[in-house]
Design brief:
Shape: globular
Number of strands: 4
Strand order of the largest sheet: 2-3-1-4
């Protein structure tokens, strides 16, 4: 075959350090486009972004020649540095170390996109911890609850 053809779609979830509610509207309205710019710079496509003050969900179209861990390392480190430079009153802003990444089939794209758009609705009845554990279970990912939220 003469080329590489792919349709890699990922649902990425990560939180602020200790799930501190840093992502308030003033930060959110500038952070989301900044993260989208990082994804685009790395030849990815940010298809949806949403979250709550303590965590984010991203639906990303990704490429075959770069690891998702490289993308997440760049997203977190660059955005954290940008927050510190842009919002000097937030010197303690940090992301939690790990993340969740889940594959998304083409047939489930709109469902995942709507899920990300409706985070406030979901969290009216479910905590982030409950949500994240439900995602792990739905994707049949083994975990040890003692280490999820270090």
């Amino acid at each position: 075959m003469g080329g590489t053809y792919s349709n890699i779609r990922l649902h990425v979830v990560f939180s602020t350090k200790n799930r501190e509610p840093w992502i308030q509207p003033q930060l959110q309205e500038r952070l989301y486009p900044f993260l989208g710019g990082i994804v685009r710079e790395q030849s990815g496509k940010l298809m949806e972004i949403g979250g709550m003050p303590d965590h984010l969900h991203l639906l990303i179209g990704w490429r075959t020649d770069e690891s998702i861990s490289t993308l997440l390392r760049n997203l977190k480190s660059r955005s954290s540095a940008w927050v510190h430079e842009t919002f000097p009153d937030m010197p303690y802003f940090r992301w939690q170390e790990g993340y969740g990444v889940f594959s998304v089939s083409h047939s489930q794209m709109s469902k995942v996109s709507k899920y990300i758009q409706n985070q406030a609705e979901h969290h009216a009845v479910k905590t982030f911890k409950e949500e994240f554990i439900a995602l792990l279970k739905a994707h049949n990912i083994e975990y040890d609850e003692r280490y999820i939220f270090e």
